[in-house]
């Protein structure tokens, strides 16, 4: 019995060594002049959406690929409907994950982790709270961890000011931006006079907050980064108190690109199935394989795995940018 096992082990070892030392042969890089786009961005959410918009505004041709579509309804526009948005079948991606190791004493696996698909990604189903207070320590810790000052709180606040279009403060305020694309606003206090809010418990809560000390006038100011107390938070809502998000940014840039130098196109309800590599000075992404009409397995429109997806190739002149979220970004890689 020892000899067959020894032969089996030797064979497996040889196969492992071959697998470890043999690199797949990549095709030669195609002529960039034949590329359909300068860039392909996989994912239309908080990461990929603003980047795609900036590239298009800078004069590049960009294709945004997303597994969802352009959803505009009461769930995605009315702020208080965010709890409905996370269960909207047009948007929902119902991920669950296990975080406990086998044999844990009190495991609570199968935690629900809702994300959204569609133009705007999870920015069209989040709770809209615009709160960067108390993030200073987090960003400075990341900067120290990676020895990269671009992650510092001071530097990240520059980006906050760059994207913010503040609608509720005087423009002389040095801690906020007033010319960006993400609109921020506060809820009018007049809503508290509505009889529907005349609940004894809500009144008690409001009274306690009002008498607990001086209110924090601007939760997102630099001076109040570590403040404690009651505050009226701001939200990513516009002047009409509708949701403001990456969706609006993409739609606006796409419309402007029709008459400008850049170009922004959308491939919606489309899966990016594979990033295609070629053999340059080092492996380089020359395109992406996509399947139109396909769905993610965690999406409401998933109807089972297809045996053979009908795919097509989109070639790029410069880069494929994968920013499809923490879970699906790995699939095309």
Search tags:
alpha/beta; 4-stranded mixed β-sheet; 21% strand; disordered N terminus; GMC_OxRdtase_N; Glucose-methanol-choline oxidoreductase N-terminal domain-containing protein; signal; FAD/NAD-bd_sf; oxidoreductase activity, acting on CH-OH group of donors
Describe this structure in words.
- This protein is an alpha/beta fold.
- The chain is about 25% helix and about 20% strand.
- The strands form three sheets. A six-stranded mixed sheet has the order 9-2-1-12-11-10.
- Strand 1, helix 2 and strand 2 form a beta-alpha-beta unit.
- Helix 2 packs parallel to helix 8.
- The longest helix is centred in the first third of the chain and has 20 residues.
- The protein is globular.
- It starts with a helix and ends in an 11-residue tail after the last strand.
- Its cofactor is FAD.
- This is Glucose-methanol-choline oxidoreductase N-terminal domain-containing protein.
- Belongs to the GMC oxidoreductase family.
- One of its GO terms (molecular function) is flavin adenine dinucleotide binding.
- Pfam families: GMC_oxred_N, NAD_binding_8.
